[in-house]
């Protein structure tokens, strides 16, 4: 049901490795690979949110 205009992944991927890139390109969307931010990850951010919400 959702069709993002832009699919974004961290810089540890190549565009050819992004799951769903072919689908996004298929309907005219873009796929972008951003540079890595040292000592930061989506998993760490989610874990921090979960820990904070338990307090």
Describe the fold and architecture:
The chain has 55 residues and is α+β, with helices and mostly antiparallel strands. The protein has one domain (6-54). 35% of the residues lie in helices and 15% in strands. It is built from 2 helices and 2 strands. Strands 1-2 form a two-stranded parallel sheet. β1 (6-9), α1 and β2 (30-33) form a beta-alpha-beta unit.
Considering the chains and any ligands shown, give keywords for the structure.
55 residues; two-stranded parallel ribbon; alpha+beta; 35% helix
List the helices and strands and how they pair.
Blueprint lengths: L5 E4 L11 H6 L3 E4 L8 H13 L1
Parallel strand pairs: 1-2
What letter string, H or E per element, gives the SSE order?
EHEH
- What's the mean pLDDT score? 89
Provide the β-strand percentage band.
Answer: 5-15%
Widest sheet, order of strands: 1-2
**SS class:** alpha+beta
Concise synopsis of the structure shown:
This protein is α+β, with helices and mostly antiparallel strands.
